[in-house]
Each structure stands twice: as C-alpha cells, then as structure tokens.
Design brief:
Blueprint: H1 27-38, H2 41-53, H3 57-85, H4 89-96, H5 103-136, H6 147-155, H7 160-177, H8 180-207, H9 213-220, H10 229-242, H11 249-254, H12 263-291, H13 306-313, H14 317-349, H15 355-374, E1 388-390, E2 393-395, H16 397-423, H17 427-435, H18 444-454, H19 456-475
Antiparallel strand pairs: 1-2
The structure holds 4-fluoro-L-phenylalanine (PFF).
C-alpha cells in the first residue's frame, strides 16, 4: 500500500536538503527493509553453528520461545518509539522525555552500531572472499585436511581481508548514500526476495542428498538432555541479535514510516520471516553436513571450514557453494545498511550534517575502526598479540568489540527501551502508536504485548546480563 504521494519528496534529490527526511514509500518496502535487517549473519552463520553446538532440536525450541516472548515484544517497543519520534534514536528519547538522561540509551545504540559494523563488515568480507574463490577456482582444494588451515591462513593476512572488508563497507555506504527510498527500500525490494529464492533452492539440494535424514532428525527431534542454563541464555542473546533489537536500528527504520502502518503486524511478519530463514538455513546446512559425515558442532568455522568440504565433494558443489556465499553476502549487506543507518540518521537529524557527507564520514570512520578489528581476529594476526583487559580477563580487539556490543550493549539497549516504555511513556500513547491510524487500540494482542514488554522482556534481558557478567568473571 503506497502512502498518499510517495514521490512528493522525490524531486531534485531533496534527501540531501536539510530538514526533509526521507521516507519509505510503501508498507511493503518498510517490511522488506526490516526483514533485510533482521535476516543476516545471525541467521545463516550464527544460528546454525550455535544450534549445532547446543544439540539441535531442543535448542531450537527454546530459541523460538525467546523470539516470541522476549525479542518480538522488544522489537515492537523500538518500532513504536521510532515512529512516534520521527527522528534519530537519540532525538526520540529527547522528544518524548525532554530534560531527562534517557537519550543516553539512544547514544549507546549509535555507538553500538558503530562497533558492531566494524567487525560485522570483516566477516561479510570473508563471505565475499569465499564467493569469489568459488567463481575463480572452485572449492576443489578444500579437503578435510586443508580446509581449516586455508581459512586460518586467510584471516590472518595483513592486507587481503581488509580489502574485502573495504568492499563490503563501500557497497553498504553506496546504498545508504542513495537515501531511504531510493537506496535502502529499493535494495531491499530486490535483494530480500532473491535471498528467499536462493535459500529455497539450497534447501532442495540439501534434503535430496542421500543420507540427509540424519540432519533433519538432528534439527527436529529434540533431545532435552543436551540443554543447560547456558543454552537458554545463548538462545536469548541470539534472539536479540537476529531480530536487530537493542541498538535503535529498527527504531531508526520505523522513524521513516507513515502513520497508516500497523506496526504490530509488521513486527510479527518480520519475526516470522526471520525465524523461517534461520530454520531454512539449518535445513540447507545440517542434512548436507550429516550426508557427508561431518561435525555439526564445529563452531564459528561451520560455514567457512566445514561447508567448503561439502562443496568440494557434492554434485554441482561449485555452483551450490557460490550461490550459498552469495546468499549470505546479500543477507549481510541488507543488515549492514540497517546497522549504519542509525549513525547516519543521527548525524543528519541531530547534528544537521548533509546526508551525503554524513554517509561518507560514517563509512570512513567505521572502516577505520574495522581495520584493527580485522587485524586482531586470531592470535596469529598482526595485532593478535595485543590483549585488552576486560572483567579480570583479557580479549583481542576483535573479540572485545564483538563481546561488548552483542553481549552488553544490545541487551542493555533493549532493556533501556522497555524500561522507558514502563517509566517514561504513556501506555495509551504506545498502544495507539503500534496500532497506527486505522488500527484497533482495544485489541487483546496489543494489551498482551504491552504487558509482556514491561515484565517478561526486561526480566529475560536481566537474566542474560547477569549470566554474561558472572560468566566473564568466572573465566577471568
Ligand atoms: N539481525 C542481524 C543478523 O541477524 O545478522 C544483525 C543485526 C542487525 C544486529 C542490526 C543488530 C542490528 F541493529
């Protein structure tokens, strides 16, 4: 459904004129952009390997529960705040509760975006490299013996990974540079459906391999004996990360949406698609892993070390491998734009920087932080020997950025947004914002959402944080 006159703001590139904010031209465009943000490395890289490490089906069940009762309500909190504010995350807190320190929650989100993107773009660069390997040489040399060391040797190189990271950041910046409608919305409209098609083809290839049943059983027959407290907390953390909740990315996207959109429906659709992609990624990966008698619990190397061994052996493996890494790259790209947009929106809305200049400076700054991140991935990396003290232990720079942003800043940001809803905003205003101009504010679902968002969601987040801190102290 298009808004009244989607092209009013379209003449002579006014997104670069100050005070004219861009806008999603349609509800579908907004939904696809939000799905593009949610579906990313979290679904196709993290979800399969974390599921693999936590025993499969039983973990998936807790993950689904966490999406429904913890992450989805928090997503809707962000959506409602963002559309109400119609400005950056920081500006939104200031607008609703002027003269209070709540805006610091928005500032933490902008910083988190900066930090997450600097290492996320490094991993996106590896994905790009693996796609190009497939195109140029194929995966023939990625044997059981060589695959791990080939990956290890690549990520510690001083130049090549940075070049790939630079390309990933450049593509992200180009899309952001073009604006909300012409950049983010247009890219999402093409890339997200394309992602869906490739994923389905990969699922068909994987489940038709001889011996695939064992992988399906691993995913769908729960064995609860494999679960422990950590599995539960892993599931909560992953649920936040995968739905892009906690740093104001979804808040920023929603600030570009018209009042006619029912945010509750969109949030539900985003959660359903996001979860669907995670499950389908598992179905694209585990049956193939089992069919070739490989290890499902090989950790972060699952897609870079284990899968190329499969592509080296399976019929049409080269083509499947290229398609697979292309799929992940698209997913990463549409997430990267959503991680960068809050930084750019903040520069434009709060500091009055022109959008094009804001994009260029944010892109360069994030890339510069990304360079030491990329050079500190492994102990053998150029900066891998430098350890930064953290909670009694010490971390490499890459791990520090990852841990601080994902395990602390995102949960704290989401907790802050839920508490803001409870303490600083009015229940009626929040529910009316979610329903939009045509929606029913008396709906039981919306009452349930509000109740959840001010009780179960913050409690779940607190449990995650306490566990994280105790775990770090214990390790230190
Ligand atoms: N949801 C993305 C993924 O699953 O890869 C990652 C992400 C995007 C996290 C945007 C946070 C965010 F604000």
């Amino acid at each position: 459904m298009a808004d009244g006159n989607p092209h009013l703001h379209d003449q002579s590139d006014p997104i670069d004129e100050q005070h004219v904010r861009g806008k999603f031209a349609s509800r579908l465009g907004f939904m696809l952009a939000a799905v593009g943000s949610a579906v990313g490395l979290g679904n196709i890289w993290k979800f399969p390997y974390i599921t693999g490490e936590n025993g499969g089906a039983a973990f998936i069940l807790i993950y689904l529960a966490c999406i429904a009762v913890v992450a989805l309500p928090a997503l809707l909190v962000e959506f409602s705040l963002g559309r109400h504010g119609q400005t950056s995350a920081i500006g939104t807190y200031r607008k609703i509760a002027p003269g209070t320190p709540w805006w610091l929650n928005g500032l933490m989100g902008v910083l988190a975006g900066f930090i997450i993107l600097s290492f996320y773009s490094a991993v996106a660069g590896w994905v790009l490299k693996y796609m190009i390997v497939g195109i140029v040489d194929g995966y023939g040399t990625y044997t059981k013996e060589a695959s791990g060391s080939t990956f290890g040797a690549f990520i510690v190189q001083p130049v090549a990974p940075i070049v790939y990271q630079f390309i990933a950041m450049l593509l992200t910046s180009v899309i952001i540079y073009a604006g909300i409608e012409k950049g983010i919305e247009r890219a999402s409209k093409y890339l997200v459906p394309l992602l869906g098609v490739i994923l389905i083809l990969l699922v068909v290839r994987s489940v038709t391999l001889p011996g695939a049943e064992a992988g399906l059983a691993f995913m769908f027959k729960p064995d609860f004996s494999k679960l422990n407290a950590t599995s539960f907390l892993n599931a909560v953390g992953l649920a936040f990360f995968t739905l892009s909740v906690g740093m104001g990315a979804m808040m920023t996207y929603a600030s570009y949406v018209g009042k006619e959109v029912h945010l509750g429906k969109t949030a539900l659709q985003v959660a359903v698609f996001d979860t669907g992609v995670a499950i389908l990624s598992g179905i694209a990966i585990f049956p193939a892993v089992f069919a070739f008698d490989l290890e499902p619990s090989s950790g972060p190397g699952l897609i870079f070390i284990t899968l190329p061994q499969i592509f080296a052996q399976m019929p049409m493996g080269r083509l499947v491998g290229i398609a697979f890494f292309f799929l992940i790259f698209i997913a990463a790209l549409t997430s990267m734009i959503s991680i960068m947009e809050p930084v750019v929106t903040w520069l434009v809305d709060d500091l009055n920087v022109r959008r094009h200049l804001a994009t260029a400076s944010a892109g360069v700054a994030i890339f510069l932080v990304g360079v030491p991140a990329c050079l500190s991935v492994d102990d053998a990396s150029v900066l891998g020997g430098i350890k930064i003290p953290f909670f009694g232990g010490s971390l490499k720079f890459f791990d520090l950025l990852d841990t601080v942003s994902q395990n602390f800043m995102l949960p704290l940001g989401a907790l802050g947004a839920c508490l803001f809803l409870l303490l600083a905003w009015k229940r009626g205003a929040a529910i009316a914002e979610v329903a939009g101009t045509g929606g029913n504010t008396n709906s039981g679902m919306l009452q349930l959402w509000y109740w959840c968002a001010v009780t179960i969601t913050p409690l779940g987040i607190l449990a995650l944080l306490v566990h994280g801190v105790l775990g770090m102290i214990g390790k230190g």
